[in-house]
Design a protein that fits this description.
The structure holds two protein chains of two kinds. By secondary structure, chain A is α+β, with helices and mostly antiparallel strands. Chain A has nine helices and 17 strands. In chain A, helix 1 (about 20-30) crosses helix 2 (about 80-95), helix 3 (about 125-135) packs parallel to helix 4 (about 165-175) and helix 6 (about 230-240) crosses helix 8. Classes of the chains: A alpha+beta, B alpha/beta.
Chain lengths: ~280, ~325
Amino acid sequence: MRHVFSVRIGPAGFRVGSDWRQPIAELEDLYRDYPKPDDDIPDFTVRLFAARPWRRFVRPAVMIGGDFTIPDAAPLPLALGLLAAEMGMNLQMALAQRRYLLLHASCVERDGRAILMTGESGAGKSTLAALLMARGWRLMGDEFALVDPATGLIHGFPRLISLKNESVGVMQAALPDARFGPPQLATPKGDIRHLVPDARSIAAMAEPAVAAHIIFPRFGFEAAVREVPPAETFVRLTQASTNYVALGERGFDALTRLVGGVPATAIDYPDAATAIAQVEALA
Amino acid sequence: MTARLLVAALRDPASTAEFNASGWTALISAARGEQMIGTLAHRLAGLPMPDAAARILEDARVSAEQGRIAALWEAEMARRALAPLGMPVILLKGTAFVAAGLKAGQGRHIGDLDILVPQDRIDDAEAALIGAGWEWVKPDPYDDAYYRRWMHELPPLIHRDRDKMIDVHHTILPLTARPRPDAAALVAGAVEIGGGLSMLGREDVIVHAAAHLFADGELAGGLRNLWDVHCLIEEFDEPGFVDRLRARAKLHGLLSAVDRSLRLSQWLYGAGAPLTLADRLFARRLLGRDSWGRQRLKATEFGFYLRGHLLRMPPAMLARHLWTKWRKGYRPPG
């Protein structure tokens, strides 16, 4: 491929190839403080390519491919090339990660203790994780948390934080000196802007942490806190995992161990300040 | 083309000792593209290699092992569903290889469950599977009717709880194809492999692989298919085996397909073999994957797409079929 970029995020190395310079330049800038894949051999390949040769130049549209793909994925306009690259990397993880049980969750850590936050789109996972990072927590990721079946430890995947709609402004106010990616406007999920994790989160990204609490946040409700029993947590987390079935017995064992040893709480919150207070009270 | 790296590594695992980082990266991408990474992992097990490559291949090995367990479980589910009918459950392809513990099954990617049942019992088999939780996946009446009238298998069924597909065959080539394999002989020659399951006889397994690749398909997955043939021949080899195989191929009208798969599997993975001009075109198609795991040589790929369809049905029928599919929004690759 014409333009190439490689990076390691947490335990996973990626190689991104592109027909266009722009998404690669953006990746190089935003991931400039990240390491390269171990031994220079990436775990996964992502390809950003034109569906037809002339579409490189005429109404350029970015198709997302790679080692693992889903059929019928719609192309994105070139202005959203960075988003396409991020989606491509997430897709490889979601479809192919087998070393760790993969939970769709954001994750922050303090004193070696990891807080996992998981919920449906719009629950506020990314925003809460970013706000906690602004308050001195280490960001382990805003999309995936990885459970090591052998040790039970949580491994981070601190790629760029994907902020949507109003949370972009919230984070620009909370972290005026942070680095943000180019605005990705009118995406299928609204307006998106990426936030680069802070230096400490990047430097410590290979360090796993002990799971300390699982939180199911819900935005837009009266403040409420409810303990979630292990059986319910188990079922919710099977829904939040993209590779639970594929891991078979290893996945079952890892998840059973996690929900058996870690308390879980559902929190409803009307605004970010309330949520932060609720989470820090539990931690 | 990078697919050559994959073939070289499978033929001679020690050749990977000289790979640099970009060689490993290309090898892994090509192996993923051909769905042969688990096979590669088995083949290279224990050899010195960079830690990152070892980790990736170990993941692939574990993943293939999980796939093996899931495939065997799916076969057992089909056996239970069909047991009341008293017909043999004849496993085909990957599931048969792992169930019988054959070398071709080591690390092999297994997609759907493929089984063969006697042609006159196929309606019973379908009813029993639907009673046990499988459902039709082809919502389009044209596709459904096409399968039932012309194909060698039922429209694919998927299990509503386990989300696994089963292909129920009554023969090994579409009824529109020119060769007419002897389906009754396939069933009669099946051998038991334990656990209430059967697979095709030794010769017929290879005939099926060759039929699938050269008399039916567009050659997608060809490197894997020919690796199967290579392993099967190696494992079944004894005096006179190839002669018996060729005689059996003749019975099924598939001698040229079998001969071609013997030549190409030898050329790719064995000691080498002289290729005909046509073989070289097939080889070009088979080795079309690049260091990014992409299938290049779009024109060659499209040529084989057309060829696959021409073999499957007479031109007038093909034209009508492609026109119908085009109207429904399907577009060929290329």
